[in-house]
Amino acid sequence: MKFAWIKTPETEWEEKKTLITTALESGIDHILDREDVERIHKLGNIKVIADDEDADIILVGVNGEGDGTFPLPSNLEDSKDLMAAKSLKRQGKPIAAYVEIKGKRYEELARLLGKTVDYLILVGKDWKIIPLENIIADLQGEDVKLVAAVADEKEAKTALETLEHGTDGVLIEPEDPSQIKKIAKLIEDIKMGYYELKPATITRLEPVGSGDRVCVDTCSIMDIGEGMLVGSYSQGLFLVHSESLESEYVESRPFRVNAGPVHAYVMTPDHKTKYLSELEAGDEVLVVDKDGKTRPAIVGRVKIEKRPLLLVEAEYEGMKLRTLLQNAETIRLVSEKGEPVSVSELKEGDKVLVYVEEAARHFGMAIKEAIIEK
């Protein structure tokens, strides 16, 4: 998942506090600050990055070789920054390395540090795309998060999208609170993805008795047309509509999707799935609308209760898809026209929206493997 960090400017505490508070309210909870670690911790559940033993992430490279304070050694393996990072790593501490890319040798230092540290902060006075491309390509197999220092949201967008994958995050020293909000909005927009939904034809509807079904209550309000991708087969998931419509029996609960039984898959961010029974408060699920646009939502509560179930079978280009849903008129799928349709009104021959993929899944991750689900 893409993220943003804030670097506090050298200013009075009250002004700095306003920026940090705005960041926290905008969903940004990592702050690079070398002077006020203790004060910042008092403002909330915030991770502080600093060259301080009380920091949550220890920073190396500032006042070292990474920022040019000391010249690079002839043999980069003898870098003091690198040795410090390795020492901290042996102590089990999370580390961020700070490197200003002033030339090829600084690129090489960044690559070496990237093989040791948890986060690699890349700083460029006049960013060019090629240095980022080189470092991203060389470190893509390493367990390190790349963070590009940027001046504004335009540079942030470039960094996050370079080489398709882009950097994992950006670091910005904001001029005012509005810039923080723009960066937060950019991160939110990038997290939104797209799933191509297809119309599948209903071929079977059959009550099958009772089972443990799961209601997923999120911390987000869903609109009409939004729901979650759920199904018994990982290769084909149904768009199950949220309870954002009122009925003569119950009021709307637009934060909820009555998703199906405990065994069913639900799509989560990063194109992974979980069993509904695995979800718990604090997890993230993917909200999907009738056009395939997505956004993450935090799970606030999961309710599992025994309810009568309905088997729903559909077909898309010869592929059979199945799921089970609570047998109640308030449970809805989405028609090929993008309209919510109650399972009590569905009939064979109707078309509903599904997501189909070629890859099977192993522990929730898409893989190329022959797996039969029926």
Automatic annotation (TrEMBL):
Instruction: List residues of the 3-dehydroquinate synthase N-terminal domain.
Output: 1-186
Uppermost EC category = oxidoreductase
Listed under catalytic activity are: 2-amino-2,3,7-trideoxy-D-lyxo-hept-6-ulosonate + NAD(+) + H2O = 3-dehydroquinate + NH4(+) + NADH + H(+)
Q: What is this protein called?
A: 3-dehydroquinate synthase
Q: Which Pfam families match?
A: DHQS (PF01959), DHQS_2nd (PF26558)
- Example of a GO biological process term: amino acid biosynthetic process
**InterPro entries per UniProt:** DHQS (IPR002812), DHQS/DOIS_N (IPR030960), DHQS_C (IPR056179), Hint_dom_sf (IPR036844)
The enzyme's E.C. designation = 1.4.1.24
Q: What is the role of the protein in this entry?
A: Catalyzes the oxidative deamination and cyclization of 2-amino-3,7-dideoxy-D-threo-hept-6-ulosonic acid (ADH) to yield 3-dehydroquinate (DHQ), which is fed into the canonical shikimic pathway of aromatic amino acid biosynthesis.
* Entry annotated with the keyword Lipid biosynthesis: no
Record's keyword terms, sorted? Amino-acid biosynthesis, Aromatic amino acid biosynthesis, NAD, Oxidoreductase
Upper classification of the source organism reads: Archaea, Methanobacteriati, Methanobacteriota, Methanomada group, Methanobacteria
**GO terms of molecular function:** 3-dehydroquinate synthase activity; dehydroquinate synthase activity; NAD binding
- Protein's organism: Methanothermobacter tenebrarum
Q: Residues in domain 3-dehydroquinate synthase C-terminal? A: 200-374
Q: Which family does it belong to?
A: Belongs to the archaeal-type DHQ synthase family.
